[in-house]
Amino acid sequence: MLIFIAITSYKALTTKDLHHFLEIAKGIDGLLFRTPMSHEDLFYFITNLIQQGFPKDKIIIHSDIELLEKLNLSRLHMREMDARAFDYKSRHPEIEISMSTHSLESVTQAYEHHLDYVFYGHIFETPSKPNQTPRSMEEIYQVLQLPIPVYAIGDITKETIHDLPLGFAGICAISFFMNASLTQIEQLRKEWVKDA
């Protein structure tokens, strides 16, 4: 069962990042590559990461179908309402496809097009979305009624995890996973399980 999905910071990834991902690999269930790096640079970064022992089945590619196929990976994440996700899933049901969502309508569309899960948020106020109001409790409860796994996103930390409503399949985060040690991630997992 997937619980924790780490998302890379939106920057060119470095050797330091590569070592961090190797260190935390055991504690996460997926690593989403969301970066401005070129197709070629990201290809070489991920190839190097895999060669150094990072589990291939934990790698999630953001939007770049060509890169997914070139690396022979099986997990793809798409932007909200990107029709390519629906088309690709219909032609490749074996590929795990997720989507970012911010509304009940988007989550419903993802479910109706047989996507595997969605990221939904933002749940808490977050520096990455200044001046944007988080989803309301009413919106969250409506989304959690749909029969698709929903992952919370938006300033999920060891402090806020206890405030998440029950029903989320897991969490996704940028800052927490980019900065946490394996021990801190394992502690957060204990907190998640305790509250589930």
TrEMBL record:
Pathway involvement of the protein, from the record: Cofactor biosynthesis; thiamine diphosphate biosynthesis
Domain Thiamine phosphate synthase/TenI, first and last residues per copy: 57-175
GO molecular function, one term: thiamine-phosphate diphosphorylase activity
Transmembrane residue ranges: none
Cited InterPro entries: Aldolase_TIM, ThiamineP_synth_sf, ThiamineP_synth_TenI
One GO CC term on file: cytoplasm
Record's keyword terms, sorted: Thiamine biosynthesis
Gene3D superfamilies in alphabetical order: Aldolase class I
Pfam family, one: TMP-TENI
GO biological process: thiamine biosynthetic process
Protein name as catalogued: Thiamine phosphate synthase
UniProt organism field: Staphylococcus devriesei
